[in-house]
Known about the structure:
By secondary structure, the protein is of the alpha/beta class. 17% of the residues lie in helices and 27% in strands.
Amino acid sequence: MAKRKTERYPVQGPNSLWQMYKTVSFWKVVKCFIVVQLARYIPWLPLKNWMYRTFLGMRIGENTAVALMVMIDTMFPERISIGSNTIIGYNTTILAHEYLIDEYRLGNVKIGSGVMIGANSTILPGVTIGDGAVVSAATLVNQDVPPGAFVGGNPMRIIRQP
């Protein structure tokens, strides 16, 4: 499994989260937060996907189902792409950023087509999940997932590969 692909940005002074509005516009965060919170509760999938594409700049394929309560990154959602016919399970979190004490990191999240992500999973920035992969519920996806693999756990491990 490949390591996560993130860009690292060192900061001086207070921790990077304290300085977040130096890295992303306050108004962008407000807009993204409102759209994400509305989409978390909308049960009509075509409307939800349209909102993600139109207001957040995400790339989402046809017939992809993002379940209720999924938390999309509220600062850099445009760095997330999801293929066609994929399911993102209930209450999953997809992050494209991470703020640490001395730096922040950004990374694209690429989720392939025909992927199944179980409920309550967390996908970290810089991760690629290959086509046809299955991610077990409550998994911390901290590395790339090969196409067709079945992964699970915290930390994530490969359970089965084609």
